[in-house]
């Protein structure tokens, strides 16, 4: 009662701000609403009763918190409470001319999330009109399929007026390629940017380059770029979820565990640390824990594609395929140009539930949307391999993929699978040796071992299994192949009879059959999550 109306308004805003920082968002909204009501009453009073001429009142009224700022804070509370419609409503209530760039930016992001693309584009353009160097607004427009040339035209004046900004037009061009799924041209353009002295060793560019190599299926270069970025910025979090996933796929689980611990020490309020730990759990076959960690990551960032893929993977391996499909569809909605969302997600779910027709439709759509490259050709071939009628088509597609990229591991694996079915082991051995000439991969060495066993090259087969295990000590199929080989002696009739007698007596045959079926089941799981 001792405070003036303007002081009451200030106190309500300060109280709401404090609640906001204490993460009491509902309570904060309540206090912000009371503050706005107080401000409305204050405005009516000032209109009815003109200023008394008190000199102290003028500076006080000038220092009052902005009503627009209060509404922005309310919208922030609503977004934290996942009440996006209420956030949009409160910001929509601000007249267009009074909207600041950060209000337009929040509106654009909310519209985009709600699927209101036209309104989102309008808001992003308004941000750029006020702030031509707002890179997030540029990326927002490009992600909504606005042409790179149109976006560049909105920044041309500022580029010409400020020295050393010539890189920006190339940057826009690079990210236009990123959002149209043209990974090769995007990589080449970003590499040209990275060579410029102004942007050399730029962590953001290195992270983008690592992500692009990952999308293009070049995991080796992707890991290399992520490591470079990490060395330059030890506190880097962005993109580390993909890095952790790649390490887990390679069987480097100790490195994944260390990465997760390091990220949690930086911040546990981002999705990335939870995804990295989830990848460690998933590849340790602890699917329930991976599911929990994926859900926690989504709670922190509902737009985290890697978190959605992790949770979908865990659900699928737990037999909850329909729930997994929902998560993969959301991942595709957020990242329509990321092939792994289809390949390691939705299509594998369809194949697992014997919905070959749906898988074929999806693979054809991806092929038409992203174009005929080694990855899309291999993906389509993978589905064709599931249907006996389309085996020849699969062979043609794989040959095309390997012509484009002879070192593409997934294409080599699928072609080897096809040759194995046809019992063309010598052709398979030649294919695998050629693929391993310039790279070393656990799966390729293991498959080469299998082929060598088929042609009775036992000693070299053991060598290949050993190499595979040195690359990934957790690869069960390589371990079982090696153990099987060690138990085998020279293939004479006598020793074969002794082996049969021994195995019948000890029950080892049953154990081996059980481990083979278990390994086959895990191989399916690995394949669907993108391990092969």
Commentary on this structure:
By secondary structure, the chain is mostly helical. Among the domains are: 166-234, Alpha Horseshoe (Serine Threonine Protein Phosphatase 5, Tetratricopeptide repeat), CATH 1.25.40.10; 237-331, Serine Threonine Protein Phosphatase 5, Tetratricopeptide repeat; 440-488, Alpha Horseshoe (Serine Threonine Protein Phosphatase 5, Tetratricopeptide repeat). 75% of the residues lie in helices and 0% in strands. The longest helix has 24 residues, at 25-48.
SSE diagram, text form:
Elements: H1 5-21, H2 25-48, H3 57-62, H4 67-80, H5 84-92, H6 101-113, H7 117-130, H8 135-143, H9 148-153, H10 156-161, H11 167-179, H12 183-194, H13 203-215, H14 219-232, H15 240-249, H16 253-266, H17 271-283, H18 287-300, H19 305-317, H20 321-334, H21 339-352, H22 356-370, H23 374-384, H24 391-404, H25 409-421, H26 425-436, H27 442-454, H28 458-471, H29 476-487, H30 493-506, H31 508-528
Helix pairs in contact: 1-2, 2-4, 4-5, 5-6, 6-7, 7-8, 8-11, 11-12, 12-13, 13-14, 14-15, 15-16, 15-17, 16-17, 17-18, 17-19, 18-19, 19-20, 19-21, 20-21, 21-22, 21-23, 22-23, 23-24, 24-25, 25-26, 25-27, 26-27, 27-28, 28-29, 29-31
Region (Disordered): 480-532
Keywords: TPR repeat
Pfam family, one: TPR_16
Q: What percent of residues adopt helix (DSSP H or I)?
A: over 70%
> Counting H and I runs of at least 4 residues, what is the number of helices?
31
Shape: elongated
Number of strands: 0
Strand content: under 5%
Query: Could you report the average pLDDT, rounded to the nearest whole number?
Result: 85
Radius of gyration: 29 Å
CATH-derived architecture of one domain: Alpha Horseshoe
Distance between the termini: 71 Å
CATH topology of one domain: Serine Threonine Protein Phosphatase 5, Tetratricopeptide repeat
Main structural class: mainly alpha
Low-pLDDT runs of 5+ residues are 50-59, 492-500, 503-532
What CATH first level of one domain would be assigned? Mainly Alpha
Major pleated sheet: none
Identify the CATH homologous superfamily of one domain.
Tetratricopeptide repeat domain
């Amino acid at each position: 009662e001792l405070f003036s109306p303007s002081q009451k308004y200030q106190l309500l805003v300060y109280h709401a701000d404090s609640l906001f920082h204490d993460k009491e968002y509902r309570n904060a909204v309540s206090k912000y609403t009371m503050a706005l009501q107080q401000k409305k009453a204050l405005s009516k009073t000032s209109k009815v009763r003109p200023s008394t001429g008190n000199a102290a009142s003028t500076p006080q009224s000038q220092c009052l918190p902005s009503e627009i700022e209060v509404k922005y804070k309310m919208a922030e509370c609503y977004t934290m409470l996942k009440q996006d419609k209420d956030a949009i409503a409160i910001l929509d209530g601000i007249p267009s001319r009074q909207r600041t760039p950060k209000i337009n930016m929040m509106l654009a992001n909310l519209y985009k999330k709600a699927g209101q693309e036209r309104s989102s584009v309008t808001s992003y353009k308004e941000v750029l009109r006020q702030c031509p160097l707002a890179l997030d607004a540029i990326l927002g427009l490009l992600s909504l399929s606005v042409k790179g040339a149109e976006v560049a035209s909105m920044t041309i004046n500022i580029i010409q007026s400020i020295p050393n900004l010539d890189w920006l037009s190339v940057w826009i061009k690079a990210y236009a390629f990123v959002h149209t799924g043209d990974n090769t041209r995007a990589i080449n353009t970003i590499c040209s940017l990275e060579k410029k002295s102004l942007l050399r060793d730029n962590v953001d560019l290195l992270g983008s380059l690592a992500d692009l190599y990952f999308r293009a299926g070049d995991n080796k270069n992707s890991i290399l770029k992520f490591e470079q970025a990490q060395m330059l910025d030890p506190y880097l979090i962005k993109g580390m979820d993909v890095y952790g996933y790649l390490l887990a796929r390679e069987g480097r689980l100790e490195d994944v565990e260390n990465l997760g611990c390091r990220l949690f020490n930086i911040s546990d309020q981002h999705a990335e640390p939870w995804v990295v730990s989830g990848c460690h759990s998933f590849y340790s076959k602890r699917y329930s824990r991976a599911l929990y960690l994926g859900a926690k990551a989504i709670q922190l960032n509902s737009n985290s594609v890697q978190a959605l893929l992790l949770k979908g993977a865990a659900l699928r391996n737990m037999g909850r395929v329909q729930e997994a499909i929902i998560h993969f569809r959301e991942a595709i909605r957020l990242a329509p140009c990321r092939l792994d969302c289809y390949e390691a997600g939705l299509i594998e779910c369809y194949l697992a539930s014997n919905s070959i027709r749906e898988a074929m439709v999806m693979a054809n759509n991806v092929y038409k949307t992203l174009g005929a490259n080694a990855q899309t050709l291999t993906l389509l071939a993978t589905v064709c391999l599931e249907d006996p009628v389309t085996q020849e088509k699969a062979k043609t597609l794989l040959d095309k993929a390997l012509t484009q990229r002879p070192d593409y591991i997934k294409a080599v694996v699928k072609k080897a699978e096809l040759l194995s079915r046809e019992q063309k082991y010598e052709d398979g051995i030649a294919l695998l040796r050629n693929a391993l000439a310039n790279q070393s991969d656990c799966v390729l060495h293991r498959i080469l071992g299998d082929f060598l066993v088929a042609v009775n090259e036992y000693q070299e087969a053991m060598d290949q299994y050993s190499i595979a295990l040195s690359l990934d000590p957790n690869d069960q199929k390589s371990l079982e192949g090696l153990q099987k080989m060690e138990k085998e002696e020279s293939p004479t009739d006598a020793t074969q009879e002794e082996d049969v007698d021994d195995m019948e007596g000890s029950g080892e045959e049953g154990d081996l059959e059980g481990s083979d079926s278990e390994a086959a089941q895990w191989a399916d799981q690995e394949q669907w999550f993108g391990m092969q």
